[in-house]
């Protein structure tokens, strides 16, 4: 479970928040972002493919995308009156050559 410092909302990838009781369900909430690769990162990724190792530019891009999609999901949950999101999942899809979507979704709830 994560309590987001910016929004003070509990987030869990399980069906409940440990130690709390769900008292109201609001429904599915979502957040997404579409990101394109960066030419500079592509050049460095190409070099790393030769020698091996982590593609840090892409790791950072994925972390930023995950955070942005999660924040959008949280904003939607709070606008519904929720103070928690359970069953949080992430999905990705290719939008076009060099661009991908990261999608976060879960169930907005009120816990006591």
What layout of secondary structure does this protein have?
Layout: E1 2-3, E2 10-11, E3 22-36, H1 39-51, H2 56-79, E4 84-96, E5 99-111
Could you characterize what this model shows?
The protein has 112 residues and is α+β, with helices and mostly antiparallel strands. It starts with a strand and ends with a strand. It contains two helices and five strands. It has one domain: Hypothetical protein apc22750. Chain B (Translation Initiation Factor IF3, 2-Layer Sandwich). The chain is elongated. The mean pLDDT is 86. Helix content is 33%, strand content 40%. Strands 1-2-4-5-3 form a five-stranded mixed beta sheet.
CATH level-four homologous superfamily name: Hypothetical protein apc22750. Chain B
Shape: elongated
**Low-confidence parts:** none
Q: Gyration radius, to the nearest Å?
A: 17 Å
Q: Widest sheet: strand order?
A: 1-2-4-5-3
- Assembly type of the shown chains? single chain
The major sheet is characterized as: 5 strands, mixed
- Written as H for each helix and E for each strand, in order along the chain, the element string is EEEHHEE
Q: How many H/I helical runs? A: 2
User: How much of the polypeptide forms β-strand, as a percent range?
Assistant: 35-45%
Terminal-residue CA separation:
15 Å
Notable traits:
single chain; 112 residues; alpha+beta; Translation Initiation Factor IF3; 5-stranded mixed sheet; 2 helices; 5 strands; 33% helix; 40% strand
